Amino acid sequence: MSRYSLVFTLLFSAILVLGLLTKFYLASRQIRHVAGHRNSVPTAFAARISLQAHQKAADYTVAKARFGLLETAFAAALLLGWTLLGGMDALNQALIHSGLAAHGSLVPQLALLAAFGVISGLLDLPFSLYSTFRIEERFGFNKMTFRLWLADLAKSALVGLAIGLPIVALILWLMGSAGSFWWLWAWGTWMGFNLLVLVLFPTVIAPLFNKFKPLEDEALKARVTALMQRCGFAAKGLFVMDGSKRSAHANAYFTGFGAAKRVVFYDTLLKQLSPGEVDAVLAHELGHFKHKHILKRIISMFAMSLAGFALLGWLSSQAWFYTGMGVKPNLSEANDALALLLFLLVVPLFSFFISPVFARFSRKHEFEADAYAVSQTNGKDLQSALLKLYQDNASTLTPDPVFVKFYYSHPPAAERLGRMAHAVESAVP
Ligand SMILES: [Zn+2]
């Protein structure tokens, strides 16, 4: 074992332990904070949220945080199993000696990725089952039957295979044959693939899982169309999705690009909100477009992937990168799938510590979208819509502030409504 390898093992172990400790610390803060505020509705909401709803939100939040801890602990153990305890090495060696190599270098590499994918997928199943049929079920959110759950699983595995296999094969091929700047080519390919998925998702992929019907409510349609015209926004269509098939959680979103953009409302959202409130929620989404948040997100994703591929390009040729994580590399032969897998395993350990930066940007964007919605529609509607959504989704009104900094992509209700109340009041002469 070289000195670099030992240093990398130590760094890898240290960051794994540090991440684990941080996640446990944050979750225990959140659990303590939410449980501590369980018995009284915050004053600002006392008139509008019942104690019963507040306590349901607290219990749901705590149940999810506890379960998250179990998942975190399991993921860390699994990561150790794959790396320092030799799981990945055993799998890799078994495939190298399996005779698959007779079919060229790509076949055993794809087999390694597929085997890893299948094993990880299977190990994840109990968590997905428990989360859907225990936690979501207990709080009345789950609407899925076991049959639908199985059908979803089969469909996503097939879709993953159909679109994942070609792109992975292409990237492995580039890694093997495009010279020392392969990572630049691979990056370009990966970006093209991402854009293609953005285009295909609304029209090809999402309809495999849900039904999309054009919005039929004429009054709402007229109202929403007027709002979009007022905001200078063209979309290909307004659709209603049967979200209630799986869950009682409500949402609305935009998908697609350019002229192919469409607005999708969950049927659960239309059931819970008044037309004015739907308008306000849509105006919030339009705010994300007006402020170019989607574009900014895509650009930052492009930039980070470029850095990632460049880093992978360098790491994949360093022996210590493999041996430091308990795997014997095969540097004289095709080794790229192994490099890719180890990279994907190790990167989240480091990126977890910069996640608060991204969460912060995201919360800032939410405030901007809220402000836009208040300027374009009735601010009171947005306030009542948000309050309904927070309540119907059992989102806690009293999250731990430090937990929020790390994990919340949306600001807590109190902050959002506080800012909005201020904006609404100052708009009244
Ligand atoms: Zn938003």
Describe this structure in words.
With 429 residues, this protein is mainly alpha-helical. It has helices at 3-36, 51-82, 87-96, 106-138, 146-177, 182-209, 218-230, 267-272, 275-290, 293-315, 319-323, 336-351, 355-376, 379-392, 401-407, 413-427, and strands at residues 212-214, 237-241, 252-255, 262-266. Strand 3 (252-255) and strand 4 (262-266) form a beta hairpin. Helix 9 crosses helix 14 (379-392). The protein is globular. It starts with a helix and ends with a helix. The model has no long low-confidence stretch (mean pLDDT 91). Zinc ion binds next to helix 9 and helix 13.
Q: What's the arrangement of strands in the largest beta sheet?
A: 1-2-4-3
Major sheet summary line:
4 strands, mixed
What are the bound molecules? zinc ion
Overall form: globular
Backbone structural class: mainly alpha
Number of helices: 16
Number of DSSP strand runs:
4
Helix content: over 70%
How big is the Rg?
24 Å
SSE pattern, N- to C-terminal: HHHHHHEHEEEHHHHHHHHH
Low-confidence stretches: none
The overall pLDDT, averaged over residues, is 91
Distance N to C terminus: 74 Å
- Strand content is under 5%
